[in-house]
Structure formats: structure tokens, C-alpha cells
């Protein structure tokens, strides 16, 4: 009998690992269990589905179950939920949801790609069906169906992180009256430093939504959300309070957990049990700058860690070095990017920093369409090592954090960044790229 | 008497060095000689001035002579041409053009920022006044004035490198019938490998201009350009055959020259004579990947090398490590970027390479406005070290060469690039950034 890999979770991480393992080991017997109805989709595309930029959920699906079956010979079982892992017997207990049938599936290797789920704070009414999180594509479709069914007029989005902002903008464009409620004094408070986040406050208000910062949600009642300053009308509530790893299956099986309950893995994505792997939003990862373990739920990390897991499962050797904390989003036409450590994160990691914020333009100042952009650089005092960068600005601004992400990965100083040979022509940039303008300012402060 | 710095050339390099020296040494006596009528402008903006994107040449001027006089206490002398350098006497012979007066100016330190000038091949009629190159802003203004004066209908652009393409598009948009004549079989043959350059051929033809590739110019006669396949009507001819360093003054003074006649400098931008510095388009530089001296005339390099010269002139210490060959341009709405070594350059530098070209999109494939883009990665066989990257694609494509430029500077392998934490959200990128998609393909080939 050939070796069997069982994969729990048919989204990006599970299926990327399965496909990669298949490539290296054509003889492997691969069974993938997905409790939902779709495989391998772009969860990050859900806000754009709601906003109408993307016409159908099918467009967000990178590969269908049939494609996996046909092209990769992966036995994909949809609406099959893994309910328990027995590490001694090396079996997974499975429930076939449509038939409510349960059975056990033996494995030689196990790949856990159970992802993450939206945080639901313990508030009265939080479990009402119209209080929804957005994580899976099925969630997204359900949300949109609920909005259409109830012909909802008032949507409350709780949390002004990037998912909250994207969903608020999406429902505004969908045609609802949107109220955004955020406990912090400013949007994106976990992503940006206060001085950069403050640049978004006016923008968020300008979206055409009502934004309430520094406001706590106290509970949910039919048709309204309760806050200290009175109830807010709500036909539908979207939770944008972040996610937590879906690791209960792993925990109950006795696997070691790490930060925020994510599954602890080594650099090959191996869990604490022999032949059991984890990757994606359910797994812990490592921050190359803080040199600390962290939990980070992003599609890029999911794809990369899954590829590493798949290579190792397939008999190869691969390691994942870690992340530097890069992320990007858009609020209306304003782009937001960040990489490395924020000011607060740098302090927590023990760095003493020099920090600068510069104002410049996305193109040569005289070129049509040049828009303002601000760049913050955070460097280590003394050594001048670049630790982090944050960008808020017009079209073409935010993706420049990639330059800083590579420089941070390479351990470059701000002086090194000044010397980089970056691309320039007037439609693209000033002659000193904005990243270098910030680096030059930082050189004088470190 | 205070120490005197004489600067020859009032464009980017000369004035950036002068300003930097002033910052470090407030007591320095600085005299800057500029034979033209403008200081410190963006020569790269000239095509956009012709096309009408930029309304006035003044917009391209970063700082006027008066600003340099007032804010930096630099004695800027416009329409003053340096005609000779006497290294023994430490004087510069100067001609005040308007008065045709000549005099000698003593210096303690000398900064040479004489720039470059368009290549004029030795062809019959090349010195006709309507055969023009584009290097200085005065050239650009003269060209536009000539076009307006003659109400020119037919413009011939010779050379389909980036300046030729930008000028051809600019004159087409200005309203002229444009013929582009290029000796090579494809556009941008010195910038891109043939497989990537071929992607531009159809685009160039689609600009609305007549493009003749593989055609030699044999001479210029009033109203026409001569070619083996017959004359081409031309009220105005624009030369886009590249530039050569303006180093005759330095050569006559006995300074050591290097590649293509550029002024040899060390890493501090010091020439072969004590206290004499050079930077910008007239100076030689160093390629970090080929590890060879090269001549490269780009605004980015001019600004960086001038800053280094200025620090050293001002009594500080700075070095310029070199370039990796990054450049970017636009042909209509298609962006072109490159960094590192091309295939031919890598071969000349002795590398054995693995090369891949991948096709992808500028945004997530399902996202509105996603446009095709192609990425070529060139890596060293065996080590997997990234040597070069070329990009041709829609909006947002080309500036991604910066990611590769930093990775190349840091000596990263294509595997390292696969592991980078680059920014992703559907409006910006696919989940694996196009640069990483190319790197993944290259990993399999090295």
C-alpha cells in the first residue's frame, strides 16, 4: 500500500501543500478534507466581491476540486469535516456533512491547514446570525446573500483594521449606510504608528460612511448595535476585529501550540508530532527582525509556508526563514503599506530607534498625476539598521514597501538604502525614490 | 582667504555637489560656472515638456540660480563657459558668453559636472541645425521652439532606445507625423534582451508612428533623411543614439579617462588629480554585478555620485559603491523596467546563466484593471544568484524591478527571492508577487 497523506483544510495552505507534495512524490496517496464547498480561493478578494468589483465568487477560486482531482490526483472530499486527530492510531475522524456519516481515515503523514476564524468577543448577542465574520469564501457568499435577502440598509462594521476598512468601503459601495465602530482612537492602529494612522482618519470619514473612533461595542440586539453613546441601527454586523488560529483540533490531539494559540512548527513546518505538518493561518511563524515567534494570518505567508510543508512532505527539504511583517491595503484611492517593525513593535523587541516621516510625491513633482505620499522610516540608533517602513499615499505609493522589505531582510542600514540603484523616470518616481528620501532623512538621525 | 571650490556645470551633478559641500563647510567660497541659462533641472522631463504633459520648462527646474545664491551662498555664474583647466596653476579659464570676455579663476578644489552630449555619428549633413540632440533643457526648449517655428509636420527620430522612444511618442502627441528609424531589429536593444524587446515592437508600431527597424541612416539633406530604402521626409530630426561623456576639458587638462572617455574617478569621486572631483554623466562608475567599470548616464546616478563628491569636497567622507544597472521607462501605457545584467551582459562578464520568462498579471487575475506583464529572471547556474531582471507590462509592472535591484545588491539567490515577504492585496499583486513567480521558475532551472 502506498504512503497516505491526509490534508485537513482545502484552502490555500492545504491545497498548496498537497500540490507541492504531489509534484515531488507521484506515488503518494493524497486525501484532502474540506468542510466547506470551495477549494483554494482568494479570501482577500471577498471585499471586492461585496463591492461588485468581482462579479462571481467563482472568479476567486484559483483551482476547483475537480481540477485538483484531475490534474494533481488529489482525492478532494468536499463538505467533509475532520473532527478529531488520533496521533497514536494515526487516524483522523471525519464527518461527511451532507450524509452526517462519520468514519476514520488512516494517515502516514498529516498536513493541517485549518486556517483562522474571526475573533468574536464575548458580548451579549454576538452569536446572532446577522453578526458575521468574514474568513472563508462561504462566509463571504453568506454575507452577501444575507445582505441581499434582508435588503439591508444599515451595516455596522466593528473594527477599523484593514479587513474592517475594506468591508466598510465594500458595503458602502454595495449601497448600504455604513457605520464603522473602532475602539481605538484611529484606524489601522495595529498596522501603523499613530502618526501615520492619523493620516487615514479624515479619509475614512470621507468615504461616505460614519466612522466612530474610540467607541466600544457593548452588545448586539435585533436591528441595532449597543454602544455607550447609544444604539446604532444595524440590519447586518460585520466583525473586523482580526482572526485567531483555528487550532482546536490540533490542540485536542496534543500538538504543541504557540503564540495566540497557533500551532507551533519548526522551520520545516513540522509540528511537535512526527509526520504531522501545519502551515498557513493556523500555524505560528517567525519574525526576522524582532526574532520572535508570531502569529500572522496573511495569504502570502500561507502560500509560502504551505509550499515549504509540501516539499518536506514530498520527501524534499525546504525551510521557511520567516516574515518581516509586510502588508498593503487600499482605503478608497489611498494606498497603505508597511513592513518591518512599527515603532511600538521595535520598542517591545528592545530596539532604540530613530524615526523620521517625510512628505513627497508618487511621481516627479512636476509630472501630471503626481500625488502626495508620506513615508516613515524606523532605524536602529547607532547601527543605522533599517527596522521598519510605513507608507500612506496615492496610486503607486504603497508597493514601494517591497524595497524596504528586501532591504530589511538583507539587514541593510539606512545608508545602504540611500545608495541603492532604484528605478527612476518622471512618470514613476522622483529622482531619489521616496524610500530613499526617507532613508536620507533617517541617516541624519541615527 | 577662504578655500575656493569651482564647479564646472550647473546641472544636477554640479549643483548637488555644490549644495552638499556648502552644508558641510559653511566657510567655503563656491563659484559655479554654467554655460547655459538654467541650473539643476530634470533633463528626463524634456520628452514630457514636448508632449505637453508639462506646461513650462520652468517646472523642470528644481532650483533656480537665485535660489542657489540666496539659500546656499553659491556664486552661480550663468552663461559662463569653462574653456580650459590648468592643474599646475590651479586655475580655470572662463568665457563670459554674453560679453565674450575671458578670465581665469583660481581654485583650491574643482568639481567637474560637465555631463554628456548626444552621440552624433559622422554622417553627411549631421551638423545641420535641424538635426538635434536632446540633452540639456536648453536643447529641449530649442527643439520645441524650432518645431513651433517651422510648424514642422514630419519628425524623424533616429534610434529606438528609451530617449528615442520617449521623443517619438512626445512628437506624435505634439501633433507631428513621426518616423522612428532604428538600426537594430527591435526597440530598446541595448536595454532589454531580444525576447523581451520583441514585446515592444508591436506596441511601438501601435503608437501611431512609422517605425523602421533594421534600417540605417545614411545622411541628412534639407527636408529629408537618407536611408538605403529611400529618403524619409523630415522637417526636424531628433537624435536618440545615446550619449557620450563631455570630458574633453578634463582630457585636455591631463586627467585620466576611463570607459567610453568618461572621467576616471575612485569611490570617493576623486579624479586622478588631487582636489579635483567629477560626478554625474561625465564620470565613470562601477557595476556591482559585472564588477567592471562602466559609463552610465542617468539622473539617479548623477545625483548619488554628486552627493558623494560634495561630502568629500566639504571635508566629510563618503563613497559610492556602484550601480546594478536599474532603469525604467514607459512606451505609451506599457511600462519597461530592467535591473542587473542582461543576458548578453552576463555572458560578457563571464557568467553561465539560467533564464526564464513568465507571464502573469499586474494585479490579482480576477481584479478589475489587471493587465498582462512578463518578467524575465536571469540567474547564475549553480549558485542560483540573481543576476538580472527585466519587466514589460501594464500599469504598476515596471517599478517592481526595484525589488530585484535590492535583492541583486544584497547578493540574493532566486531561492532567497522566493522567500521574501513582499506586499500583497488583490488591487496590487497576485499572492506570489510577479518577481517571485519569476524567481520560482528560475529556481527550477539553476
Low-pLDDT segments of chain A: none
Q: Look at the structure and give the CATH class of the largest domain in chain A.
A: Alpha Beta
Q: Assign the structural class of chain A, choosing from mainly alpha, mainly beta, alpha/beta, alpha+beta, or little secondary structure.
A: alpha/beta
Portion in strands of chain A: 25-35%
Count the E strands of chain A.
25
- Strands of the widest sheet of chain A, in order across it, are 3-2-1-7-18
CATH architecture of the largest domain in chain A: 3-Layer(bba) Sandwich
CATH topology assignment of the largest domain in chain A:
FAD/NAD(P)-binding domain
Number of helices of chain A: 12
Jot down its keywords:
alpha/beta; 5-stranded parallel β-sheet; FAD/NAD(P)-binding domain; globular; homodimer; 12 helices
Would you kindly provide a written description of the structure presented here, covering whatever features stand out?
The structure is a homodimer of 446-residue chains. The first copy, chain A, is of the alpha/beta class and 446 residues long. Chain A folds into 3 domains: 4-116 and 243-313, FAD/NAD(P)-binding domain (3-Layer(bba) Sandwich); 120-239, FAD/NAD(P)-binding domain (3-Layer(bba) Sandwich), CATH 3.50.50.60; 327-443, FAD/NAD(P)-binding domain (3-Layer(bba) Sandwich). Chain A is built from 12 helices and 25 strands. Chain A has a 5-stranded parallel beta sheet. A 5-stranded parallel beta sheet of chain A has the order 9-16-10-11-12, covered by helices on one side. The longest helix of chain A is centred in the C-terminal third of the chain and has 15 residues, at 299-313. Chain A is globular and about 65 Å long. The N and C termini of chain A lie far apart (63 Å). The model of chain A has no long low-confidence stretch (mean pLDDT 95). Chains A and B meet through helix 8, strand 21, strand 22, helix 10 and helix 11 of A and helix 8, strand 21, strand 22, helix 10 and helix 11 of B.
Amino acid at each position: 500500500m502506498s504512503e497516505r497523506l491526509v490534508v485537513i483544510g482545502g484552502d490555500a495552505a492545504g491545497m498548496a501543500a498537497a500540490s507541492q507534495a504531489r509534484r515531488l512524490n507521484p506515488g503518494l496517496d493524497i486525501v484532502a478534507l474540506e468542510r466547506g464547498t470551495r477549494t483554494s480561493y482568494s479570501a482577500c478578494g471577498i471585499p471586492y466581491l461585496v463591492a461588485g468589483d468581482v462579479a462571481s465568487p467563482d472568479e476567486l477560486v484559483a483551482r476547483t476540486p475537480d481540477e485538483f482531482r484531475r490534474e494533481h490526483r488529489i482525492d478532494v472530499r468536499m463538505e467533509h469535516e475532520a473532527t478529531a486527530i488520533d496521533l497514536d492510531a494515526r487516524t483522523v475522524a471525519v464527518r461527511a456533512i451532507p450524509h452526517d456519516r462519520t468514519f476514520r481515515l488512516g494517515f502516514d503523514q498529516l498536513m493541517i491547514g485549518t486556517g483562522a476564524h474571526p475573533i468574536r468577543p464575548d458580548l451579549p448577542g454576538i452569536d446572532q446570525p446577522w453578526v458575521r465574520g468574514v474568513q472563508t469564501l462561504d462566509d463571504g457568499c453568506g454575507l452577501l446573500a444575507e445582505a441581499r435577502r434582508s435588503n439591508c440598509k444599515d451595516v455596522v462594521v466593528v473594527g477599523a483594521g484593514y479587513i474592517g476598512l475594506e468591508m466598510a468601503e465594500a458595503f458602502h459601495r454595495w449601497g448600504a449606510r455604513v457605520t464603522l465602530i473602532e475602539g481605538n482612537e484611529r484606524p489601522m492602529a495595529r498596522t501603523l504608528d499613530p502618526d501615520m494612522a492619523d493620516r487615514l482618519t479624515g479619509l475614512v470619514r470621507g468615504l461616505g460612511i460614519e466612522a466612530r473612533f474610540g467607541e466600544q461595542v457593548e452588545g448586539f440586539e435585533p436591528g441595532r448595535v449597543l454602544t455607550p453613546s447609544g444604539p446604532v441601527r444595524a440590519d447586518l454586523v460585520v466583525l473586523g476585529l482580526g482572526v485567531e488560529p483555528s487550532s482546536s483540533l490540533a490542540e485536542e490531539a496534543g500538538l504543541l501550540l504557540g503564540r495566540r494559540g497557533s500551532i507551533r512548527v519548526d522551520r520545516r513546518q513540522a509540528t511537535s508530532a512526527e509526520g504531522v505538518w501545519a502551515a498557513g493561518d493556523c500555524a505560528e511563524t517567525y519574525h526576522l527582525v524582532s526574532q520572535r515567534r508570531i502569529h500572522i494570518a496573511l495569504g502570502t505567508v500561507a502560500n509560502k509556508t504551505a509550499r515549504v510543508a509540501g516539499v518536506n512532505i514530498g520527501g524534499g527539504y525546504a525551510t521557511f526563514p520567516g516574515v518581516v511583517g509586510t502588508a498593503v491595503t487600499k482605503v478608497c484611492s489611498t494606498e497603505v503599506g508597511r513592513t518591518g517593525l512599527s515603532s511600538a513593535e521595535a520598542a517591545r523587541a528592545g530596539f532604540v530607534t530613530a524615526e523620521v516621516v517625510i512628505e513627497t510625491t508618487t511621481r516627479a513633482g512636476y509630472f501630471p498625476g503626481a500625488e502626495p505620499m508620506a513615508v516613515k522610516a524606523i532605524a536602529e540608533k547607532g547601527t543605522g539598521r533599517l527596522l521598519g517602513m510605513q507608507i500612506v499615499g496615492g496610486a503607486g505609493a504603497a508597493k514601494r514597501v517591497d524595497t524596504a522589505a528586501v532591504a530589511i531582510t538583507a539587514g541593510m542600514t539606512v545608508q545602504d538604502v540611500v545608495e541603492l540603484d532604484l528605478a527612476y523616470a518622471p512618470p514613476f518616481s522622483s529622482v531619489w525614490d521616496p524610500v530613499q528620501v526617507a532613508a536620507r532623512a533617517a541617516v541624519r538621525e541615527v
